[in-house]
Amino acid sequence: MKAGDDEGEQSSQQPGGEAAGGKVQSKLSAAASAASSSGSGWTKVSCPCCVSEWVEPLVLLKLGPKVGPETKRWVIKLIGAPQKDGGAGLLAHPGEDACGNIIVVSAPRCTLLRAAEELGLCKTYENGDMEAFSYSDRDNFKDSDNMEVFLTSAERQYMVKYELDGLRAQRDLRVPGLSESCVLLKRDNIWRKLGSFGVIVDTLPLHNPKKLKELGEGWYAGNQLVQPLDRINEYFGSCVAFYFSFLDFYTWSLLPPAILGMSIAYFSGDVQREMVESVSGSKAAEDQGEPGLVISGHMVQAVFSMIWSTVVMELWKRRSSSLSYRWGTMNLAERFAEPRPEFHGELGVNPVTRRVEPLFSEGQRHLRMALVSVPVVGLFLGLVVLGMTCFYWGEARVQQLHKDWDSLLSKALLYVPSVLHIVYTNMLATVYKTVAQSLTEYENHREESAYENHLTGKVLVFTFFNYFAVLFHIAFFKQDVPLLRKRLASLLIMSQLVNQVTEIVIPYLVDRFISAPNRMESEDDPEEDKFRNQRSLPPFPGLFGEYIELLVQFGYLSLFSCVFPLTAVLLLLNNLTEIRSDAYKICKLFRKPFYPPASDMGVWQIAFEVLSFVSVVSNCWLLVLSPRLQKKCQDGEMSSTNLLLGAVIVEHFLILVKVILAALIPDEPGWIRKKREHIEYTSMQALKHQKLQTEES
Amino acid sequence: MKAGDDEGEQSSQQPGGEAAGGKVQSKLSAAASAASSSGSGWTKVSCPCCVSEWVEPLVLLKLGPKVGPETKRWVIKLIGAPQKDGGAGLLAHPGEDACGNIIVVSAPRCTLLRAAEELGLCKTYENGDMEAFSYSDRDNFKDSDNMEVFLTSAERQYMVKYELDGLRAQRDLRVPGLSESCVLLKRDNIWRKLGSFGVIVDTLPLHNPKKLKELGEGWYAGNQLVQPLDRINEYFGSCVAFYFSFLDFYTWSLLPPAILGMSIAYFSGDVQREMVESVSGSKAAEDQGEPGLVISGHMVQAVFSMIWSTVVMELWKRRSSSLSYRWGTMNLAERFAEPRPEFHGELGVNPVTRRVEPLFSEGQRHLRMALVSVPVVGLFLGLVVLGMTCFYWGEARVQQLHKDWDSLLSKALLYVPSVLHIVYTNMLATVYKTVAQSLTEYENHREESAYENHLTGKVLVFTFFNYFAVLFHIAFFKQDVPLLRKRLASLLIMSQLVNQVTEIVIPYLVDRFISAPNRMESEDDPEEDKFRNQRSLPPFPGLFGEYIELLVQFGYLSLFSCVFPLTAVLLLLNNLTEIRSDAYKICKLFRKPFYPPASDMGVWQIAFEVLSFVSVVSNCWLLVLSPRLQKKCQDGEMSSTNLLLGAVIVEHFLILVKVILAALIPDEPGWIRKKREHIEYTSMQALKHQKLQTEES
């Protein structure tokens, strides 16, 4: 058997993957193929440099239940055909036999390298610098002969998806084995059409069990303080790696406010008393002659958390840019690549790349956003407010009723407004998600990342509003600091308990009792079955939920922490377990997700920064409401106008400080700036050089 | 005579310059040269393509009084030597004879084209697009064979200065004819050293009288509504052209606030009465039963001027970017060019361009700024405040004295504080300017533009503070709106009168009675004398004064206009004459200035934007102080706390609107963005291509 003979040679090339890989290979080649391809079951490659005995299965395609062998053969041929003939230039394997309903897809070296250039990935050049990868210059990049070292596993799998998604019909054609109505027109996106015809039901990247196990051991299994970010990037891609990097960075940066919060809680009598009140619910004894410091723990906490949030976000930007350099995503060429499959418009010449592709004017997109998206989002935000108003109104009515009747029925009625409100909020959120998706689709963004950012932005605004509307209402309208403190403490403790349960306990139980029995596959099962098993896992729900959790935390901390100084401590404890539970979740409980290379956190970066600005306003306002200052006002020591005036001046000063801080801390470290400028300089030089070359030739 | 014979051929090449040029040429060639060069008096060029009969005199060098013919010959040789031999690669003409104290410098085609590439200028490519000029691809750029069409006159003259400034000694050498102590060390900047030895006293670009006359006719002479911006750019360079473009744009954009201001002044009784008061100085009759609208003219004016200032600045950014595309300065390569002559540091390899040059770490520069520049600037701002405090204290004392004594002496004493304050302020400003210069020099900026921007920024902050400290003091501390209105009106009217006098009347008188007699040169005077005459004009004082005038105007309008609605009208009238007087000044009364190509207004852009943010704060505060609202407070219809709270909410809302507006209006028009992205794309492609080429060769 060929695969066995090669094992020795392979192990030198691909450390860590040889055992699992060898097995996959042997299984797949053992399954005699009925497809038109020859060799070990995989389709043939057109290019001599890509011929290799070892083919790594990357992506699993699940075919629809009614797809006949004729159609399957056509799809395999399409995947295997060279790109110049309208194919994807990939490798396809029909699985066990031509009738099975899966196709395993891999990619030859040339296709991967071309995709790496198209996506604008940077890789290590022979001189050790990161440079934009160029296919024609491939031999000068380090490890460019070994795809499993050169490209990360996430990149290879995303590239397969990228090639499949980019397939367009070169002429009108009919898919063999399907009904007459299933016709592909010229320039139709083939993959989307096959999906709508029911030919392709699912496209999922395959886990590599051995690598996954190694990754998990260095990540959530032990008590490591440092997360294996590079390996996360290798296995799950830079989007996921950026999330975990941020989680890591943010958790560490919680240390200073946690220490400050604890010392304030320990040393400040005021704060201790208030916290006891908020937990016990009863009013403790009044302030008994504590020295009347004007600067209370509240103020220290408020000013500190404002400065802290700015510094943290600025430092994160620097970290983020050095990570994106390290991972080769600093120079992504999404703008210059093919538009996303769903993008539509009239065919024309792209003024930037001079390629023929669908065009859609920026102006029209802005018009759609302004006239459709913004009003609709506003409407939903209005519905949230309406819901809250109705809830307060209902509660007041019900309490009145309860006072009047004082029966068991009226007592039960007391819960009705809350329940109705929760149901209403959840329904609204579900409807909104669908609406946001269609709105963003309607906006017709050219790039995948633009689409994602606009969708995330929409959902984000709504979710944030949903979470914080009540707190803002209490702080700004009711102006009731004790209630705010109570609400914040209960939200913090409750939401963390709920999160811990949903993120650790339930996943563990599911894994132990539901998934584990399914995983009881014998070692001798064909690889195809193992691949099929991966389909039984639910798809990864995306990072939105994880990010929003962090954002809400960050909001609690920076907006309201001055009323409850232990916030940071609670968050720190929570995040230390959060890191592990999130890691466990993504590794064990879901299918592996496809993630495109990303150069930063996208719209989340902006969300955190906006929050850190709002925090100045909120903290200054809470300072005005702080009990000690209010008491002074009541005692006539200070007019409330002067108090307000003081707060406004402090606020403006702090905003100024924030703006200056943000301007002074450069967004990228000096060495990255130099590298970037060097790339700019050389490409400028190259442009001049090239014009000459074109002239001469 | 050669020059005469060529006249016909020249006229086809250089429209508009033939008559003047022909004359210059004939004069210069008539003066038999004693220098080592041959031909028509100019030094020889090394490159065959640059040999031409017609040489345009660009720059005049004035030698020191004690410079002997030996030194002059050495300087001429240095200017004429090719760049690879350490010379400037320019053309030098010794003037009348070798003993005369001027050298006329011009530039051959190759040197100009190389400099155009080094500076990163964009020029029209054969396909009509603007592309970064590349020397090796010169033949594909339109008009690249005729320097007088291809490069603007300002560019050609700046390039001569650029080449001279960039001269560095290739080895230790002694300048012939100078004392032993005048030695050039290796890598010394020759031009700076020659200046310090007293060899070169002055370097000035030469006016082209014919072109200047044409430019003036289309600019300040007639009643044109549109300024000839392209011709200004051609003659004076993009810095000056940007100033006049902004002045033009800003003047037109004053129309809406002027119309609004007039209608408010016409329709609002309140405002009319207040304005009469502020002009007459006496208190007019009280408000007599005008319908108690809550929204007064003040509020409309305040909100309008906040939105207006944002929109104007955003639209200007768009205009600015299309102008810089039009003038080929969108892609300047200053970062990649040689550092400015004054830049010093340890020799090393520049990590961006990989050239050997002095290096100075960014971190050290920041340290110097933070530890030296910021405290010193702060100190001077403190001195301004101190001066103001002393002035108020002195005035109070003197008034007290006058009350006590009531004599003529005490009456005279009343003026002492004002006079002392004016003297103090002026002295401070003079000292500060010198200090700012040495601080910026100490910061050791690599690029000329960075140096200029930091210097301008420092002076700007101080000047602005100086102008507005009194107004802010009245508005925020004294909270005296009538005084503010009176002060603003008198400042506006006074400063405009003063400006008109200094900018129109005095220049005219000077030109008529002092300059004109000097200009009484006969047509037969040698050209050298005419050149020498240009030296008699004072050097152009720079655009700082012009910009600061606009900034202060903009400040009056956006910060305080709600107390005096006719501000915009007065400014509009002022600016219509300002355009003409500024144009007259730069054309007639000063030497032609050297200006490097610029892609925008630099630091002034930021200053205007910052001002437009401060305007929100100031306007909201003035709203709180507005008489009608204050009256309501006094009548008890509204608590002052609620009033303040309302103002704060309005302020935050308007800042939000401003931020959203600024984010929504793109900084560059769509077509420019596409062009820019296309350039980025092609240079990315070229980089990949070039690596391949390098490999193959």
Automatic annotation (TrEMBL), chains A, B:
Localization per record: Membrane
Q: Which residue intervals make up region (Disordered)?
A: 1-25
Q: Name one GO cellular component term.
A: plasma membrane
Residue ranges of domain Anoctamin transmembrane in the record: 232-677
Give GO terms: molecular function aspect only. Answer: chloride channel activity
Which keywords appear in this protein's UniProt record, sorted alphabetically? Membrane, Transmembrane, Transmembrane helix
Looking at the UniProt entry, the stretches that span the membrane are: 370-394, 414-435, 455-476, 554-573, 603-624, 644-665
InterPro entries according to UniProt: Anoctamin, Anoctamin_TM
Keyword hit for Aminoacyl-tRNA synthetase: no
Q: How does it sit in the membrane?
A: Multi-pass membrane protein
Question: Per the record's keyword annotation, is Transmembrane helix included, yes or no?
Answer: yes
Q: What is its main location?
A: membrane
Q: Which Pfam families match?
A: Anoctamin (PF04547)
Q: Which family does it belong to?
A: Belongs to the anoctamin family.
**This chain belongs to which protein, by name?**
Anoctamin
